Amino acid sequence: MHKKTEMVNHLIESLPYIMKFRGKVFVFKYGGSIIESQENKEAFVADISLLIHLGMRVIIVHGGGKHISRRLEEQGIETVFHEGYRVTEKAAMDEVEMILSGHINNDLTLLFNNYGSKAVGLSGKDAGLIRARKKIIDSDQELGHVGDVEAINGDFLKMLLDNHILPIIAPIGFDEAGNTYNINADDVASTIAKEMGAEKLILLSDINGIYRDIHRPESFISRLNLAQARALIETSAISGGMIPKLKSVIASIESGVGSVHIINGKITHSVLLEVFTDEGIGTMIEE
């Protein structure tokens, strides 16, 4: 009886959030090693399917860094990162596109459809979804086929959402010259969230959120405002892949996204715990 009462209390706690978020756009970035776990993947699919049935309009952008690194190693292609971005020459770009669009995207789309959601897998090349330009960080480091998002076909995404179709997007972009670009999935999700006026941008990875010192669990940060987020970058309190992640977060909030959440997708039903409970489980960033 106690467990049943506890379940009812959780449902009551979630009711205000269900009412508030019905009809709102939620953009999810799905990445990290959680993609490699079938158990975590199925829990994520169940969570998202529930959000959709409760009336939320969901868009998913997925990464695949660990799959890509493994594939490049098999092909004898060295993996090099610069300020959190993967240097991607032409040979590597072909492999990146194959893994993201051909393997991960197809697998995730099939899982959602088998779970009862109407899902469509997309590359940024489909319907001109992600127009890109070559990314330049500094003149001393050539990144190859790494891109920045130049434009999103928001009308196409709105059409899919209006027809209750779940877009699942591989972060591959293109330019007018026919070049293909590998784009950081956080950047794509952030730009889509801005374009679609999203209520929430939720970044799932294999970390709990943001720490002031990754080696000290007690330094975990559950909430941040923009000024605090900028300070973490300026004071070098964070490093590696967290730098482009937090920069994308800041750009999203500045452009009107309601809030951004960084959560650990390895925690079963982490999406529901973050969205429908008062405390949440990750780091929430808002203005």
How is this structure best described in words?
With 287 residues, the protein is α/β, with parallel strands linked by helices. It has a single domain (24-208, 241-281), classed as Acetylglutamate kinase-like (Carbamate kinase, 3-Layer(aba) Sandwich), CATH 3.40.1160. It is 42% helix and 23% strand. The strands form five sheets. The chain has an eight-stranded mixed beta sheet, sandwiched between helices. Strands 3-4 form a two-stranded antiparallel ribbon. The protein starts with a helix and ends with a strand. The mean pLDDT is 89.
Helix/strand layout:
Blueprint: H1 2-21, E1 25-30, H2 38-53, E2 57-62, H3 65-74, E3 81-82, E4 85-86, H4 90-114, E5 119-123, E6 130-134, E7 147-152, H5 154-162, E8 166-170, E9 172-174, E10 180-182, H6 185-195, E11 200-205, E12 210-211, E13 220-221, E14 223-225, H7 226-234, H8 242-254, E15 259-264, H9 270-276, E16 283-286
Parallel strand pairs: 1-2, 1-11, 2-8, 5-8, 11-15, 14-16
Antiparallel strand pairs: 3-4, 6-7, 9-10, 12-13, 15-16
